[in-house]
## 1
Amino acid sequence: GECAPIMLAAAALQRGSRHACRVPTLALLSTALSTRAATQISQRGHHHRRLLVTMSEVEKAAAAKPGGDTIFGKIIRKEIPATVVFEDDTCMAFNDVNPQAPVHILVIPKKPIAMIQDAGDEDEALLGHLMVVASKVAKQEKLDTGYRLVVNNGKDGAQSVYHLHIHILGGRQMTWPPG
């Protein structure tokens, strides 16, 4: 089908770790292909889409390192696609590609702040704005009965992308305590 050339390329680079349908995992694709190509495949919506997402957030966090460009920087620059639900001059919000709830949206600043502890006094208004935007997006998504806002920070906090972001999780009953 439409992904056959990419599947062949990935298979040539990595033998032996495939699903029964011979589609390599997203983790293998991410190492075998560019981030853009792996993202495009994972978002195509064909019948293999769910098979491609295999790494847990904890595994991603353990492998992630601060510094350098991130997938969120590429989304901000429109180098890779995202389903954007809000955008202004300082931030944007978009659907998470690996949702952990019926509604799972990320709110990110356009300024590259890797972790919450990297925010300075000059970022106070921006951080407040992110919270206000999260509230507006939750209202826009009709999360009238409640939702959860989460900021993962560092490896032990399961931060898998080193660009500050707020998770909006809703559409189901949340449990406590979280992980």
Note: Residues 124-140 form the longest helix (17 residues).
## 2
Amino acid sequence: MNDREVLELLNSVEYSEEEIKNLEEKAISRSNSIGEDLYKIKNDRVLRNIAFIELERKIKSYLEKDENIKYKMMVLQSYLEKKIFARYVGDWGGKVAIYMGLLVTNKRIFVFRLDHFYEVLEEYSNDINNLESFTDLWKKCDTISLNFKDGKNVFPRPFEKENKEIFLDMIRYLRESTNAPFVEIKRPKVGVIFWIMAVLALAAFIGIGIDAFKLFMESLRNIP
């Protein structure tokens, strides 16, 4: 996107006095919300629109001749808890994944995990035919997960009424296209290796404790 296009997009967005006041109050309530951070908070909608346009353009460059976009939305990254929507990605100090760009064509599903400034952190895509199942977590955390045959699970959480309607319509479309069933959520199983390591660690801890106790008793005997 060139500078002219960015300016046109910025000029197309208008805020009411109430919206600006709310954004300013939100910024003031944060400890480090001056300068660039304050600007980005005020222009969250602009940043979202720009990111959305960029993602759509990127996807269009991938499309095959008989492929077209059916659904596109910006959703939250769900962490299976209603009040938790941010976790660090990568090593310590990594960026927080909050948003998710979700675009569905008649052939593929594209997922982009984004930080709070809508910068892409991770990108994933797969064929619709590789969609293995869904998990209904709507009552628990406002999401229905997409489970793929390669083991990848995607947990998008739509927000706002219109967004939720589009999301549920997308789920219906994917179900009709794949006949993928709804399944219970898979909890990670604790492997045998984990238990072996835990037992060894416990044994080592007990051994160290016994040795320390022996040294302590020996020191008591040597007291004149």
Note: The domain at 66-200 is CATH 2.30.29.30 (PH-domain like).
## 3
Amino acid sequence: MNLGHFDFDAGKYAVYVWPAFALSAAVFVWMIVDSLASARRWRTEAERRQAQAKDPSK
């Protein structure tokens, strides 16, 4: 398997293909970052509620 010979020439459609790839990559990165941030917020909230359940005076 030789990975060194990719054909990156999109011809006359390059003006559409490469921005579409870039936009797709940006959306994937945004989705990953947003998911990680959301998971962090949920975890913090769960830990806060667990601590509050153990010590209701807070």
Note: The chain has a mean pLDDT of 89.
